[in-house]
Structure formats: C-alpha cells, structure tokens
Amino acid sequence: MRLITVSGPPSSGKTAVICRVIEALRQQAVKVGVVKFDCLSTEDDERYKSMGVLVRKGLSGALCPDHFFVSNIEACFHWGLDEGIDILISESAGLCNRCSPHIKDVMSVCVIDNLSGQNTPKKIGPMLKSADIVVITKGDIVSQAEREVFSFRVKNVNPRSTTMHVNGLTGQGAEELARLFAESSDVGGLGERQLRFAMPTALCSYCLGEKRIGEEYQKGNIRKMDI
Amino acid sequence: MDINEIKIVSGTDKNGNSESVEELTIRKGDILVLAGPTGSGKSLLLSDIEQLANGDSPSGRRVLVDNKVMDPFSMRITACLSQNMHFVMDLDVGSFIGLHAKSRKIETNNTVEKVLKQANDLAGEPLSADMHLASLSGGQSRALMISDAALISNAPVVLIDEIENAGINKTMGIQLLSTEGKMVLIATHDPTLMLTAQKRIIMKNGAMFRLIQSDDVERKHLKYFLEIDRVLEGFRHSLRHGNRLDEETLKRLVELEGANHEQ
C-alpha cells in the first residue's frame, strides 16, 4: 500500500485537491482511502463519503494534534491494509505551524494557497520545508505575476520540492498530482519509521490543565522571552 | 524562447460533446480574438493555453508547442492578463516588481522604474513604488498588471482577458502587450477589439464553436466603431470630470448621426 501525508494550513484547499486527485485515480481503478485528522470538528469525512471513498476521522480534541497523528497513523495504516486500499491519504491541517506529519521515505505533500500571504511559505515551517511536493492552489484568483512571486517564495523555502499548481475547483493539475501519487513507493509498514521533523516539546503545568496565569503556576518545560 | 506556432487540439464542450472547431493553430505574429457570451468558455481556453493543457483540464484540450507536448513548469511561454482587477499580495509595489523580476531571473537595473513609468502612462491616476499593492485601485492594478506582463513576463504568447473592463486605455494596453512577432489572444466583449484581429473564434457552451476570418466589409465597419468609441470616450472623460451635458453636446451628437446616415 502507498501512503501519502498531505498537510497544509486550514482552508488552503487540501480536501478539494485530494477529491480531485481521487477522481483522477479512480479512472485508473485505484482504490483510495482517506484518514482525516483535525482538532475540534470536521465535516470533510462526509464529503469523502459522499464520493464513495473509504474514510476514517480522527479528532485530537484536547491533545496536541500532531502527537495525536503520530500515535494513530500506524493503526490507520493497518486499517488501510485490511480494507485492501491501494493508496491511503492522510490529511491534516497545519495546526500550530511548528509541526509536520511527514514521515521519512513516505511521500509528503504540502498544500498552500496563493492568497495566504507572501511570508506564509516561511512561516509554516517544516510541513512545507520537508515536503516532497508543494501544491499551490487558488491560482485563478490572483495575477500571473503574483503566482510567480509566490512559487518563487515557496522554492526559496524548499528548493528540492516539486512545486505544482492545482485548481481545486476545476481540477486542473490534479491528474499530474495523481500520477505522482501512483508512482510513489510502496510503504511496507510504519513500525520503526521516523518522522522527518521532531514534534514540539511541551511538558508543563498548562499541558496538564493549569489555567491560572502567574510564575508560581508555571512548572516543567517553560521558556521566557527576553524583554 | 523562440516558438513558431501553438496548436490547440480540441476537446469537448460543457456537456461532453466534441468541439466544432477541431484544431486551431496560432502562428507567430497572429492576433486572435475570442468572443462569446459570459460563461461560454473564453477564460478556460486562455487558461488551457497558459497551463499548456494536456487533456487534464475540464475541456480535455491539448496544447502543442511547435508540435510537442511541453511541461508548463519547465518553460514560461505566456504572459497573461487575467480578469483580476486587484492584487492580493501583502507587499509594496516596488518590492513586488523587484521580486517578480528576480523570479524571472531579470537582473537589469531600474526594472522597477521602467515598469512603474509604463504603468503610470496607462493609468489615470499615478502610482508609486511605496504604495501597498493590495490597496491600488482597479485602474492602477490593471495598469501595473499590463506593464508587468509586457516588461517582466515578456513572452512569445500573450493572453489578454477582457482588457476593456479596466478603466484604462485599452488600445494603448493592447499595443504595449502585442509587440511584433508575438502570438496574441484577446478574449473580449468589445466590438472594436473584435474587429482589430484578422481571425476570431466564437465560443459557445465551453467549446470553440466557429472560426471566422475577418474580411474587407468587416474592416470597413471598424472605422465607424473607432469613431463611436472616440465620441463615447470624449463623453466619458467629460462626465467623469463633473461636466453636464447640454443642448450643445446634444447637437453635436445629432449632427454626427446625420453624417453617418448620409454616408
């Protein structure tokens, strides 16, 4: 089974792009499954279901979403194997921008949109920096010059990535992305594999439910600004 | 980049029926107009060309460059002016032009000044390097887009989508973009622009419906269209600057109509 991790800031068009890719993959009779990770709520699983795609949903709730992802992805992988899925796609929002769900030697995609601001490629860090493919969306809304400046910014942050433009509304570019998905290497299993980037360290009183502000309540891994 | 022709191998309309124009070749120096009602597929055809579609767009068209399939990311052969009236990027005008030039590997001096000057010649209101890109007016944005497309995106194929909506000098804009030896495609609703090209494609329901070659009789219409445009432009200018219409202006119009009837 192939596994693709797709990440990107909220509302960048991840689901629209994945849906278009699935349509293209289906023409080649490839069986696709999706695991949608989110924090508090999502209705995207319904969107996949309405397309007849096998889908699982994981909401991290009070937990750090990327810790939640890494603790569950292996079970999701086994689910995919049991269902006889050819390509399993994990979709997770960019969340705190500090994280990335990308796994070594597993194809990774970052979806980012042209409207998100020219400094965003720098801001969103490892999920873009460590991605194999960067998909830029919403190109129809901006000028050609803006598209070019934006992909230039992306290339500066991640020069070794394949950068491509996909229109989530019309599907333009999705076929090419589907081809890359289908050509990715088979992932035998996830046990012993490593994340490309370490998760944020956080182990302090606030992780354990502390709500009060003040020095005396701050315990554990605390860092102070130089003010 | 030297390109001699672009061939569009047709696809389907919105309902999946084959296009009536099966193949369209655009050669160096050609100016081609796309006409048709809103939603008839003009912009999609332009975007097919921009992205060098290879059966992967909703139309299923394929675009061949000198008879070959090309990767749109490996080469930039098009300069496009889309219907967008505003920029969204959070940058000042000067940095934006500079960055765009850098992304196209243009290292020459005073690019920013040149682009700005050209934009100012087009726009009704001046713009400067320190202005915020996203806060430019529709006219300023469009003028900058045209100037940028002409000077920085300078490419053998020029795609222009409804330049008449910009509130800028459309004739001057077209002249700037379609310099000699380029392949120019203009999507428009403007009758004058439609007749400035030798050929026009009529779009219908997402498809290339008919290819019309302009002839001498059509050319003769152009002279009158230009005259009507000029008169309207005069009124536009006058009204925009707070003038009122009066008996005098009405008389001029009536005379003009009489003159046209006599001819």
Major sheet size, sense and barrel closure of chain A: 7 strands, parallel
Secondary structure tally, helices of chain A: 7
Biggest sheet: strand arrangement of chain B: 6-7-8-3-9-10
Quick one: CATH superfamily of chain A?
P-loop containing nucleotide triphosphate hydrolases
Describe the structure.
The complex is a heterodimer of chains A (227) and B (263). Chain A is an alpha/beta fold and 227 residues long. Helices cover 31% and strands 19% of the residues of chain A. Chain A has a single domain (2-200), classed as P-loop containing nucleotide triphosphate hydrolases (Rossmann fold, 3-Layer(aba) Sandwich), CATH 3.40.50.300. Chain A has helices at residues 14-26, 44-50, 65-83, 120-123, 126-129, 144-157, 174-183; strands spanning 2-8, 32-38, 54-59, 87-93, 108-113, 133-137, 162-165. Chain A is built from 7 helices and 7 strands; from the N terminus they run E-H-E-H-E-H-E-E-H-H-E-H-E-H. Chain A has a 7-stranded parallel β-sheet, sandwiched between helices. Chain A is globular. In chain A, helix 2 (44-50) links the parallel strand 2 (32-38) and strand 3 (54-59). By secondary structure, chain B is an alpha/beta fold. Chain B folds into 2 domains: 5-215, P-loop containing nucleotide triphosphate hydrolases (Rossmann fold); 216-263, no CATH class. Chain B is built from 8 helices and 10 strands. Chain B has helices at residues 42-50, 93-103, 111-122, 138-151, 170-177, 191-196, 216-240, 247-262; strands at 5-9, 23-27, 31-35, 62-65, 68-69, 78-81, 157-161, 183-187, 199-204, 207-213. In chain B, the strands form 2 sheets. In chain B, strands 6-7-8-3-9-10 form a 6-stranded mixed β-sheet, sandwiched between helices. A 4-stranded antiparallel β-sheet of chain B has the order 2-1-4-5, with no helix packed on it. In chain B, helix 5 links the parallel strand 7 and strand 8. The longest helix of chain B has 25 residues, at 216-240.
